[in-house]
Every structure is written in C-alpha cells, then in structure tokens.
Prior knowledge:
Strand content: 35-45%
CATH topology: YaeB-like fold
Number of helices: 3
Helix content: 25-40%
Amino acid sequence: MATFSRLPEFEKECKKLSKKYPTLSSDIKDIEPILLECPTGIGKNFTIVRTTENTTIVKVRMHCESLRSRTIRLIYAYRKGTIEFMYIEVYFKGDKENEDKERVDEYLKEVE
C-alpha cells in the first residue's frame, strides 16, 4: 500500500501558503490519485529533478483552484521499493524561482 508523508519544512510551507490559497490542501489531495497511477508523472507538468537507485525526485507544476493556474510547484520523492511518497517542498512560482536543492540533497542523504 502506498503512503504519503510530509517533511516538517513542507508542513510549514503548506500551512503558510494555505492562508493565501485556501484550496491548496485539497489541491494536493487531488493530485495523489495521479501519483498512484503514474508515480513519476506524465506530461509536461512533471519534471524529474534527481534520480538515485531507489528514489526519484519529481517537480510538479500543480494546479491551484484558488489561483486558477499552475503556478504552485510541488516537489516530492518517490521511493520505488516501498511505494512511498514524501512531499519535500511546495512553493508559489512567483515567490521562488527553483526548488531548494539543499533540501533535496539532505533528504536523499537520509534515505539512501
């Protein structure tokens, strides 16, 4: 069975962004069935950021109903052997250009 977990930093970002964009939590829940169907994503809205033997880090251009656009970025890790998803980062594209590479590296150090 697949599990969806969140890093503490992700929780803080999500809580902060949810004040501005109230649909964010439900938007994240809406994407989970897609991730279960195709863990590394499909189409132009998914980009593989890093890959190791057991883990794939993916960036999603996610639709946010509050914004009515795909300007929210969701960074998650997919662990192949355990079918585990870890939400690493979420941000508004207008506030930040790219994902936090240091946070991704830290996560990979912990799990590999």
